[in-house]
From TrEMBL:
Pathway named in the protein's UniProt entry: Protein modification; protein glycosylation
The protein's name in its UniProt record: dolichyl-P-Man:Man5GlcNAc2-PP-dolichol alpha-1,3-mannosyltransferase
Enzyme class: transferase
Catalytic activity, reaction form: an alpha-D-Man-(1->2)-alpha-D-Man-(1->2)-alpha-D-Man-(1->3)-[alpha-D-Man-(1->6)]-beta-D-Man-(1->4)-beta-D-GlcNAc-(1->4)-alpha-D-GlcNAc-diphospho-di-trans,poly-cis-dolichol + a di-trans,poly-cis-dolichyl beta-D-mannosyl phosphate = an alpha-D-Man-(1->2)-alpha-D-Man-(1->2)-alpha-D-Man-(1->3)-[alpha-D-Man-(1->3)-alpha-D-Man-(1->6)]-beta-D-Man-(1->4)-beta-D-GlcNAc-(1->4)-alpha-D-GlcNAc-diphospho-di-trans,poly-cis-dolichol + a di-trans,poly-cis-dolichyl phosphate + H(+)
Pfam families attached to this UniProt entry: ALG3
Location relative to the cell: Endoplasmic reticulum membrane
Transmembrane segments: 21-47, 89-105, 117-135, 141-161, 168-187, 202-219, 226-243, 280-300, 398-419, 431-450, 462-479
Keyword Transmembrane attributed: yes
Keywords carried by this UniProt record: Coiled coil, Endoplasmic reticulum, Glycosyltransferase, Membrane, Transferase, Transmembrane, Transmembrane helix
Keyword presence, Cell membrane: no
Membrane-topology descriptor: Multi-pass membrane protein
A GO MF label: dol-P-Man:Man(5)GlcNAc(2)-PP-Dol alpha-1,3-mannosyltransferase activity
Protein backbone atom coordinates (compact mmCIF):
# COMPACT_ATOMS: atom_id res chain seq x y z
CA UNK A 1 0.00 0.00 0.00
CA UNK A 2 2.86 2.39 0.95
CA UNK A 3 4.70 1.71 -2.31
CA UNK A 4 1.55 2.33 -4.32
CA UNK A 5 1.05 5.67 -2.53
CA UNK A 6 4.63 6.70 -3.23
CA UNK A 7 4.33 5.75 -6.89
CA UNK A 8 1.16 7.80 -7.12
CA UNK A 9 2.94 10.81 -5.58
CA UNK A 10 5.92 10.43 -7.94
CA UNK A 11 3.56 10.22 -10.91
CA UNK A 12 1.71 13.31 -9.73
CA UNK A 13 4.99 15.26 -9.27
CA UNK A 14 6.16 14.22 -12.73
CA UNK A 15 2.91 15.42 -14.30
CA UNK A 16 3.28 18.75 -12.49
CA UNK A 17 6.77 19.12 -13.95
CA UNK A 18 5.32 18.88 -17.44
CA UNK A 19 2.87 21.72 -16.93
CA UNK A 20 3.47 25.04 -18.69
CA UNK A 21 3.57 27.00 -15.42
CA UNK A 22 6.34 24.76 -14.04
CA UNK A 23 8.41 24.89 -17.24
CA UNK A 24 7.98 28.67 -17.38
CA UNK A 25 9.13 28.85 -13.77
CA UNK A 26 12.35 27.03 -14.66
CA UNK A 27 13.20 30.00 -16.85
CA UNK A 28 11.87 32.96 -14.87
CA UNK A 29 11.26 31.91 -11.25
CA UNK A 30 14.29 32.22 -8.91
CA UNK A 31 12.61 29.76 -6.52
CA UNK A 32 13.03 27.01 -9.14
CA UNK A 33 16.75 27.59 -9.59
CA UNK A 34 17.89 24.35 -7.82
CA UNK A 35 17.00 22.10 -10.77
CA UNK A 36 18.40 24.61 -13.27
CA UNK A 37 21.60 24.84 -11.19
CA UNK A 38 22.14 21.09 -11.60
CA UNK A 39 21.74 21.45 -15.36
CA UNK A 40 24.18 24.39 -15.40
CA UNK A 41 26.81 22.34 -13.54
CA UNK A 42 26.41 19.41 -15.95
CA UNK A 43 26.65 21.76 -18.93
CA UNK A 44 29.74 23.45 -17.47
CA UNK A 45 31.52 20.13 -16.98
CA UNK A 46 30.93 19.27 -20.63
CA UNK A 47 31.83 22.77 -21.90
CA UNK A 48 35.08 22.90 -19.92
CA UNK A 49 36.09 19.42 -21.07
CA UNK A 50 35.39 20.46 -24.66
CA UNK A 51 37.48 23.63 -24.19
CA UNK A 52 40.40 21.65 -22.76
CA UNK A 53 40.30 19.07 -25.55
CA UNK A 54 39.73 21.46 -28.47
CA UNK A 55 41.31 24.82 -27.55
CA UNK A 56 45.12 25.06 -27.33
CA UNK A 57 46.57 25.79 -23.88
CA UNK A 58 48.31 29.17 -23.56
CA UNK A 59 51.35 29.44 -21.28
CA UNK A 60 51.40 32.63 -19.18
CA UNK A 61 52.18 32.07 -15.49
CA UNK A 62 51.99 28.31 -14.87
CA UNK A 63 55.66 27.67 -15.65
CA UNK A 64 56.72 30.57 -13.42
CA UNK A 65 54.50 29.24 -10.62
CA UNK A 66 56.22 25.88 -10.87
CA UNK A 67 59.69 27.47 -10.84
CA UNK A 68 58.86 29.48 -7.73
CA UNK A 69 57.52 26.41 -5.93
CA UNK A 70 60.49 24.34 -7.03
CA UNK A 71 62.79 26.76 -5.22
CA UNK A 72 60.71 26.34 -2.04
CA UNK A 73 60.70 22.54 -2.37
CA UNK A 74 64.48 22.62 -2.75
CA UNK A 75 64.73 24.27 0.66
CA UNK A 76 64.77 27.99 -0.11
CA UNK A 77 62.77 29.93 2.51
CA UNK A 78 64.03 33.40 1.62
CA UNK A 79 61.19 34.97 -0.40
CA UNK A 80 63.57 37.31 -2.21
CA UNK A 81 65.24 34.29 -3.79
CA UNK A 82 62.06 32.57 -5.01
CA UNK A 83 61.69 33.59 -8.65
CA UNK A 84 60.29 32.45 -11.97
CA UNK A 85 60.49 33.55 -15.58
CA UNK A 86 57.99 36.35 -14.93
CA UNK A 87 59.85 37.76 -11.92
CA UNK A 88 59.92 37.33 -8.13
CA UNK A 89 57.25 35.52 -6.11
CA UNK A 90 54.57 38.06 -5.12
CA UNK A 91 51.90 35.86 -3.49
CA UNK A 92 51.48 34.77 0.16
CA UNK A 93 52.44 31.38 1.60
CA UNK A 94 49.11 29.63 0.89
CA UNK A 95 49.83 29.99 -2.81
CA UNK A 96 53.22 28.27 -2.37
CA UNK A 97 51.73 25.26 -0.59
CA UNK A 98 48.86 24.73 -3.04
CA UNK A 99 50.98 25.07 -6.16
CA UNK A 100 53.67 22.87 -4.61
CA UNK A 101 50.96 20.22 -4.35
CA UNK A 102 50.14 20.79 -8.03
CA UNK A 103 53.88 20.48 -8.73
CA UNK A 104 53.87 16.91 -7.37
CA UNK A 105 50.53 15.88 -8.87
CA UNK A 106 51.38 17.12 -12.38
CA UNK A 107 54.89 15.64 -12.61
CA UNK A 108 56.76 18.85 -11.77
CA UNK A 109 54.25 20.89 -13.74
CA UNK A 110 54.85 19.02 -17.00
CA UNK A 111 51.42 17.34 -17.19
CA UNK A 112 49.45 20.39 -18.30
CA UNK A 113 46.38 18.40 -19.32
CA UNK A 114 46.02 16.96 -15.81
CA UNK A 115 46.39 20.45 -14.36
CA UNK A 116 43.61 21.66 -16.65
CA UNK A 117 41.27 18.93 -15.44
CA UNK A 118 42.10 19.85 -11.85
CA UNK A 119 41.02 23.39 -12.68
CA UNK A 120 37.81 22.08 -14.22
CA UNK A 121 37.06 20.56 -10.82
CA UNK A 122 38.01 23.82 -9.07
CA UNK A 123 35.77 25.85 -11.37
CA UNK A 124 32.74 23.59 -10.95
CA UNK A 125 33.20 23.41 -7.19
CA UNK A 126 33.22 27.19 -7.07
CA UNK A 127 30.18 27.30 -9.34
CA UNK A 128 28.28 25.03 -6.94
CA UNK A 129 29.05 27.47 -4.12
CA UNK A 130 28.06 30.47 -6.25
CA UNK A 131 24.77 28.88 -7.33
CA UNK A 132 24.03 27.91 -3.73
CA UNK A 133 24.15 31.60 -2.81
CA UNK A 134 21.85 32.47 -5.71
CA UNK A 135 19.46 29.68 -4.69
CA UNK A 136 19.31 30.98 -1.13
CA UNK A 137 18.85 34.62 -2.09
CA UNK A 138 16.18 34.02 -4.79
CA UNK A 139 17.24 37.28 -6.39
CA UNK A 140 18.12 36.44 -9.99
CA UNK A 141 15.97 34.51 -12.52
CA UNK A 142 17.47 31.21 -13.78
CA UNK A 143 17.70 32.30 -17.42
CA UNK A 144 20.05 35.14 -16.44
CA UNK A 145 22.54 32.76 -14.84
CA UNK A 146 22.27 30.34 -17.77
CA UNK A 147 23.12 33.05 -20.30
CA UNK A 148 25.78 34.74 -18.18
CA UNK A 149 27.68 31.69 -16.93
CA UNK A 150 27.59 29.47 -19.98
CA UNK A 151 28.54 32.13 -22.52
CA UNK A 152 31.55 33.84 -20.90
CA UNK A 153 34.60 33.12 -23.05
CA UNK A 154 37.02 34.99 -20.77
CA UNK A 155 36.04 33.15 -17.58
CA UNK A 156 36.44 29.71 -19.15
CA UNK A 157 39.79 30.85 -20.49
CA UNK A 158 40.99 32.10 -17.09
CA UNK A 159 40.12 28.86 -15.35
CA UNK A 160 41.08 26.05 -17.71
CA UNK A 161 43.39 27.60 -20.32
CA UNK A 162 45.55 29.86 -18.12
CA UNK A 163 45.62 28.09 -14.69
CA UNK A 164 45.92 31.32 -12.70
CA UNK A 165 45.85 31.38 -8.89
CA UNK A 166 42.99 33.91 -8.77
CA UNK A 167 40.28 31.22 -9.19
CA UNK A 168 41.63 29.27 -6.21
CA UNK A 169 41.56 32.36 -3.98
CA UNK A 170 37.99 33.09 -5.15
CA UNK A 171 37.01 29.46 -4.43
CA UNK A 172 38.02 29.89 -0.78
CA UNK A 173 36.18 33.21 -0.68
CA UNK A 174 32.89 31.69 -1.84
CA UNK A 175 33.41 28.82 0.60
CA UNK A 176 33.67 31.35 3.43
CA UNK A 177 30.54 33.24 2.28
CA UNK A 178 28.53 30.01 2.33
CA UNK A 179 29.88 29.13 5.77
CA UNK A 180 28.94 32.57 7.13
CA UNK A 181 25.41 32.15 5.72
CA UNK A 182 25.14 28.80 7.51
CA UNK A 183 26.30 30.33 10.79
CA UNK A 184 29.69 28.58 10.86
CA UNK A 185 31.60 31.67 11.93
CA UNK A 186 34.99 30.24 12.79
CA UNK A 187 35.12 28.02 9.72
CA UNK A 188 34.08 31.01 7.61
CA UNK A 189 36.91 33.08 9.07
CA UNK A 190 39.41 30.27 8.47
CA UNK A 191 38.43 29.85 4.82
CA UNK A 192 38.42 33.61 4.29
CA UNK A 193 41.95 33.85 5.66
CA UNK A 194 43.03 30.90 3.49
CA UNK A 195 41.74 32.82 0.46
CA UNK A 196 43.83 35.84 1.48
CA UNK A 197 46.85 33.54 1.84
CA UNK A 198 46.60 32.64 -1.85
CA UNK A 199 46.06 36.14 -3.23
CA UNK A 200 45.54 39.35 -1.30
CA UNK A 201 42.72 40.65 -3.56
CA UNK A 202 40.36 38.80 -1.19
CA UNK A 203 41.10 41.64 1.24
CA UNK A 204 38.75 43.78 -0.86
CA UNK A 205 35.93 42.11 1.11
CA UNK A 206 37.57 42.98 4.45
CA UNK A 207 35.78 46.32 5.19
CA UNK A 208 32.35 44.68 4.83
CA UNK A 209 33.42 41.59 6.77
CA UNK A 210 34.77 43.72 9.64
CA UNK A 211 31.42 45.44 10.12
CA UNK A 212 29.60 42.14 9.66
CA UNK A 213 31.62 40.81 12.59
CA UNK A 214 30.93 43.92 14.71
CA UNK A 215 27.18 43.94 14.06
CA UNK A 216 26.66 40.23 14.63
CA UNK A 217 29.33 39.33 17.18
CA UNK A 218 30.17 42.55 19.00
CA UNK A 219 33.64 43.88 19.72
CA UNK A 220 34.86 40.87 21.70
CA UNK A 221 33.67 38.37 19.07
CA UNK A 222 35.21 40.51 16.32
CA UNK A 223 38.58 40.49 18.06
CA UNK A 224 38.41 36.70 18.35
CA UNK A 225 37.75 36.25 14.64
CA UNK A 226 40.40 38.77 13.62
CA UNK A 227 42.80 36.80 15.80
CA UNK A 228 41.80 33.59 13.98
CA UNK A 229 42.38 35.24 10.60
CA UNK A 230 45.73 36.60 11.71
CA UNK A 231 46.78 33.29 13.25
CA UNK A 232 46.15 31.48 9.95
CA UNK A 233 48.41 33.96 8.16
CA UNK A 234 51.09 33.59 10.83
CA UNK A 235 51.08 29.80 10.79
CA UNK A 236 51.20 29.60 6.99
CA UNK A 237 53.96 32.18 6.71
CA UNK A 238 55.99 30.94 9.68
CA UNK A 239 58.72 29.09 7.69
CA UNK A 240 59.30 32.15 5.52
CA UNK A 241 59.14 34.54 8.47
CA UNK A 242 61.95 32.58 10.09
CA UNK A 243 63.90 32.62 6.80
CA UNK A 244 63.59 36.33 6.01
CA UNK A 245 60.57 38.15 7.53
CA UNK A 246 61.13 41.43 5.68
CA UNK A 247 61.37 39.71 2.28
CA UNK A 248 58.23 37.65 2.98
CA UNK A 249 56.07 40.60 4.08
CA UNK A 250 57.32 42.83 1.28
CA UNK A 251 56.97 40.14 -1.37
CA UNK A 252 53.59 38.64 -0.46
CA UNK A 253 51.72 41.72 0.79
CA UNK A 254 53.24 44.50 -1.29
CA UNK A 255 50.46 47.09 -1.59
CA UNK A 256 52.82 49.47 -3.38
CA UNK A 257 53.51 47.07 -6.24
CA UNK A 258 53.65 48.74 -9.67
CA UNK A 259 51.68 46.93 -12.38
CA UNK A 260 52.76 46.54 -15.98
CA UNK A 261 50.83 48.88 -18.29
CA UNK A 262 51.06 46.26 -21.06
CA UNK A 263 48.43 44.07 -19.40
CA UNK A 264 46.01 46.68 -18.09
CA UNK A 265 42.36 46.31 -19.05
CA UNK A 266 40.96 49.42 -17.36
CA UNK A 267 43.60 52.14 -17.88
CA UNK A 268 44.83 51.72 -21.43
CA UNK A 269 43.84 55.33 -22.17
CA UNK A 270 46.36 56.67 -19.63
CA UNK A 271 49.94 57.54 -20.44
CA UNK A 272 52.45 55.17 -18.82
CA UNK A 273 53.90 58.00 -16.74
CA UNK A 274 50.49 58.78 -15.20
CA UNK A 275 49.65 55.09 -14.86
CA UNK A 276 52.76 54.49 -12.74
CA UNK A 277 52.60 57.79 -10.85
CA UNK A 278 52.14 57.53 -7.07
CA UNK A 279 49.82 60.54 -7.03
CA UNK A 280 47.46 58.68 -9.34
CA UNK A 281 47.60 55.64 -7.03
CA UNK A 282 46.88 57.79 -3.97
CA UNK A 283 43.98 59.44 -5.79
CA UNK A 284 42.43 56.06 -6.49
CA UNK A 285 42.92 55.09 -2.85
CA UNK A 286 41.19 58.28 -1.75
CA UNK A 287 38.25 57.57 -4.10
CA UNK A 288 38.09 54.03 -2.71
CA UNK A 289 37.89 55.32 0.86
CA UNK A 290 35.23 57.92 -0.03
CA UNK A 291 33.07 55.30 -1.76
CA UNK A 292 33.39 52.99 1.25
CA UNK A 293 32.32 55.87 3.52
CA UNK A 294 29.25 56.37 1.32
CA UNK A 295 28.25 52.71 1.10
CA UNK A 296 29.30 51.24 4.45
CA UNK A 297 26.59 53.01 6.53
CA UNK A 298 23.96 51.43 4.27
CA UNK A 299 25.76 48.09 4.43
CA UNK A 300 25.76 48.26 8.22
CA UNK A 301 21.97 48.77 8.21
CA UNK A 302 21.62 45.73 5.97
CA UNK A 303 23.77 43.72 8.38
CA UNK A 304 21.70 44.94 11.34
CA UNK A 305 18.49 43.84 9.63
CA UNK A 306 20.10 40.51 8.82
CA UNK A 307 21.11 40.07 12.45
CA UNK A 308 17.64 40.92 13.81
CA UNK A 309 15.84 38.66 11.36
CA UNK A 310 18.25 35.79 12.00
CA UNK A 311 17.42 36.19 15.69
CA UNK A 312 13.73 35.96 14.83
CA UNK A 313 14.46 32.86 12.77
CA UNK A 314 16.24 31.21 15.70
CA UNK A 315 13.21 31.91 17.87
CA UNK A 316 10.52 30.90 15.37
CA UNK A 317 12.13 28.02 13.49
CA UNK A 318 11.97 25.52 16.41
CA UNK A 319 8.24 26.24 16.76
CA UNK A 320 7.71 25.72 13.03
CA UNK A 321 9.67 22.45 13.14
CA UNK A 322 7.64 21.29 16.16
CA UNK A 323 4.37 22.09 14.39
CA UNK A 324 5.47 20.27 11.25
CA UNK A 325 6.56 17.23 13.28
CA UNK A 326 3.23 17.18 15.11
CA UNK A 327 1.33 17.55 11.84
CA UNK A 328 3.35 14.76 10.18
CA UNK A 329 2.54 12.44 13.10
CA UNK A 330 -1.17 13.18 12.76
CA UNK A 331 -1.12 12.48 9.02
CA UNK A 332 0.79 9.25 9.58
CA UNK A 333 -1.61 8.13 12.31
CA UNK A 334 -4.56 8.94 10.05
CA UNK A 335 -3.10 6.91 7.18
CA UNK A 336 -2.26 4.02 9.50
CA UNK A 337 -5.84 4.00 10.81
CA UNK A 338 -7.22 3.91 7.25
CA UNK A 339 -4.91 1.04 6.43
CA UNK A 340 -6.05 -0.98 9.46
CA UNK A 341 -9.72 -0.46 8.61
CA UNK A 342 -9.11 -1.64 5.05
CA UNK A 343 -7.27 -4.74 6.27
CA UNK A 344 -10.16 -5.59 8.63
CA UNK A 345 -12.62 -5.16 5.78
CA UNK A 346 -10.56 -7.43 3.58
CA UNK A 347 -10.37 -10.13 6.25
CA UNK A 348 -14.08 -10.08 7.19
CA UNK A 349 -16.61 -11.67 4.84
CA UNK A 350 -19.54 -9.43 3.87
CA UNK A 351 -23.01 -11.08 3.64
CA UNK A 352 -25.40 -10.40 0.74
CA UNK A 353 -27.73 -8.29 2.93
CA UNK A 354 -24.80 -6.18 4.13
CA UNK A 355 -23.64 -5.67 0.56
CA UNK A 356 -27.14 -4.59 -0.56
CA UNK A 357 -27.26 -2.07 2.35
CA UNK A 358 -23.87 -0.60 1.40
CA UNK A 359 -24.89 -0.27 -2.25
CA UNK A 360 -28.13 1.51 -1.28
CA UNK A 361 -26.25 3.86 1.10
CA UNK A 362 -23.71 4.64 -1.63
CA UNK A 363 -26.48 5.56 -4.11
CA UNK A 364 -28.01 7.94 -1.56
CA UNK A 365 -24.63 9.68 -1.15
CA UNK A 366 -24.25 10.07 -4.91
CA UNK A 367 -27.67 11.80 -5.15
CA UNK A 368 -26.64 14.34 -2.50
CA UNK A 369 -24.89 17.63 -3.38
CA UNK A 370 -22.05 16.65 -5.74
CA UNK A 371 -20.55 20.12 -5.61
CA UNK A 372 -20.42 20.10 -1.82
CA UNK A 373 -18.68 16.74 -1.86
CA UNK A 374 -16.10 17.99 -4.35
CA UNK A 375 -15.38 21.10 -2.25
CA UNK A 376 -15.06 19.01 0.91
CA UNK A 377 -12.72 16.61 -0.83
CA UNK A 378 -10.63 19.48 -2.21
CA UNK A 379 -10.46 21.10 1.24
CA UNK A 380 -9.32 17.81 2.76
CA UNK A 381 -6.59 17.46 0.11
CA UNK A 382 -5.40 21.00 0.83
CA UNK A 383 -5.33 20.26 4.54
CA UNK A 384 -3.26 17.15 3.94
CA UNK A 385 -0.79 19.10 1.82
CA UNK A 386 -0.56 22.11 4.18
CA UNK A 387 2.82 22.62 5.84
CA UNK A 388 4.18 25.33 8.08
CA UNK A 389 7.14 27.08 6.48
CA UNK A 390 8.85 30.45 6.19
CA UNK A 391 11.63 30.93 3.65
CA UNK A 392 14.34 32.35 5.89
CA UNK A 393 17.04 31.68 3.27
CA UNK A 394 15.97 34.84 1.47
CA UNK A 395 17.53 36.78 4.36
CA UNK A 396 20.87 36.04 2.72
CA UNK A 397 20.18 39.05 0.45
CA UNK A 398 20.92 41.30 3.43
CA UNK A 399 24.37 39.73 3.78
CA UNK A 400 25.39 39.03 0.19
CA UNK A 401 24.64 42.43 -1.38
CA UNK A 402 26.91 44.43 0.98
CA UNK A 403 29.72 41.91 0.54
CA UNK A 404 29.46 42.01 -3.27
CA UNK A 405 29.17 45.81 -3.33
CA UNK A 406 32.27 46.41 -1.19
CA UNK A 407 34.30 44.02 -3.34
CA UNK A 408 32.98 45.72 -6.47
CA UNK A 409 34.07 49.12 -5.15
CA UNK A 410 37.57 47.68 -4.79
CA UNK A 411 37.48 46.50 -8.40
CA UNK A 412 36.22 49.90 -9.63
CA UNK A 413 39.09 51.67 -7.84
CA UNK A 414 41.80 49.13 -8.73
CA UNK A 415 45.09 50.65 -9.95
CA UNK A 416 45.04 48.12 -12.76
CA UNK A 417 42.89 45.20 -13.81
CA UNK A 418 44.56 42.32 -15.59
CA UNK A 419 42.59 39.73 -17.52
CA UNK A 420 42.60 37.11 -14.75
CA UNK A 421 41.12 39.69 -12.35
CA UNK A 422 37.75 39.27 -14.07
CA UNK A 423 37.25 36.22 -11.86
CA UNK A 424 37.25 38.52 -8.81
CA UNK A 425 33.73 39.79 -9.52
CA UNK A 426 32.29 38.07 -12.60
CA UNK A 427 29.91 35.78 -10.70
CA UNK A 428 28.59 38.69 -8.63
CA UNK A 429 27.66 40.85 -11.64
CA UNK A 430 24.18 39.32 -12.20
CA UNK A 431 23.41 39.85 -8.52
CA UNK A 432 24.56 43.48 -8.60
CA UNK A 433 22.62 44.22 -11.79
CA UNK A 434 19.46 42.65 -10.39
CA UNK A 435 19.92 44.78 -7.28
CA UNK A 436 19.02 47.97 -9.15
CA UNK A 437 16.01 49.35 -11.02
CA UNK A 438 17.32 49.04 -14.58
CA UNK A 439 15.22 47.34 -17.22
CA UNK A 440 16.13 43.81 -18.24
CA UNK A 441 17.42 45.08 -21.61
CA UNK A 442 19.77 47.58 -19.93
CA UNK A 443 21.02 44.92 -17.52
CA UNK A 444 21.90 42.52 -20.32
CA UNK A 445 23.42 45.32 -22.35
CA UNK A 446 25.77 46.16 -19.47
CA UNK A 447 26.70 42.50 -19.02
CA UNK A 448 27.44 42.18 -22.74
CA UNK A 449 29.54 45.36 -22.82
CA UNK A 450 31.59 44.28 -19.81
CA UNK A 451 32.18 40.87 -21.39
CA UNK A 452 33.24 42.56 -24.62
CA UNK A 453 35.72 44.77 -22.76
CA UNK A 454 37.30 41.76 -21.06
CA UNK A 455 37.45 39.80 -24.31
CA UNK A 456 39.25 42.56 -26.21
CA UNK A 457 42.98 41.79 -26.31
CA UNK A 458 44.93 43.92 -26.09
CA UNK A 459 42.62 46.42 -24.49
CA UNK A 460 42.00 49.72 -26.27
CA UNK A 461 41.34 53.26 -25.11
CA UNK A 462 37.68 52.75 -25.96
CA UNK A 463 37.21 49.42 -24.11
CA UNK A 464 39.03 50.72 -21.03
CA UNK A 465 36.84 53.82 -20.86
CA UNK A 466 33.71 51.77 -21.58
CA UNK A 467 34.53 49.37 -18.74
CA UNK A 468 34.72 52.31 -16.30
CA UNK A 469 31.40 53.66 -17.56
CA UNK A 470 29.70 50.27 -17.05
CA UNK A 471 31.17 49.96 -13.56
CA UNK A 472 30.04 53.45 -12.56
CA UNK A 473 26.53 52.87 -13.92
CA UNK A 474 26.22 49.66 -11.88
CA UNK A 475 27.52 51.34 -8.72
CA UNK A 476 25.15 54.32 -9.04
CA UNK A 477 22.21 51.99 -9.73
CA UNK A 478 22.94 49.83 -6.68
CA UNK A 479 23.37 52.92 -4.49
CA UNK A 480 19.97 54.28 -5.52
CA UNK A 481 18.28 50.92 -4.95
CA UNK A 482 19.87 50.41 -1.52
CA UNK A 483 18.97 53.95 -0.44
CA UNK A 484 15.35 53.52 -1.59
CA UNK A 485 14.97 50.17 0.19
CA UNK A 486 16.37 51.59 3.43
CA UNK A 487 13.97 54.54 3.24
CA UNK A 488 11.01 52.19 2.83
CA UNK A 489 12.28 50.03 5.70
CA UNK A 490 12.65 53.06 7.98
CA UNK A 491 9.03 54.11 7.27
CA UNK A 492 7.78 50.63 8.10
CA UNK A 493 9.65 50.71 11.40
Amino acid sequence: MGNRSKMHQYSKNFRNMLTWSYLKGLVFNPAQLPLVAVLIIIAEVLINMLVVERVPYTEIDWKAYMQECEGFLNGTLDYSKLRGDTGPLVYPAGFVYIYSLFYFITNQGENIRLAQYIFIAIYNLQLILVLRIYIKSRKVPPYVLILTILTSYRIHSIYVLRLFNDPIAVLFLYSSLNLFLDGHWYLGSIFYSLGVSIKMNILLYAPALLFFYLVNLGLRGTIKHLFVCGLIQLLLGLPFLFGNPTAYLKGSFDIGRVFNHTWTVNYRFLDIYIFENKCFHLSLLAIHIVLLMIFLPMCIKYFQSYCRLKYVQNQVQPQIDAKNTEYAKKIKAKKDAKGKVKKIEEKEEITKDQQDFLNAFESILKKSSTKGNKVAKKTEEIKEQTNYSINFDILSQLFILPMFVVNFIGVVCARSLHYQFYSWYFHSLPYLLWSNNFSVIVRFLILALIEMCWNTYPSTNFTSALLHICHIVILVGVYKKMRTELKVASKLE
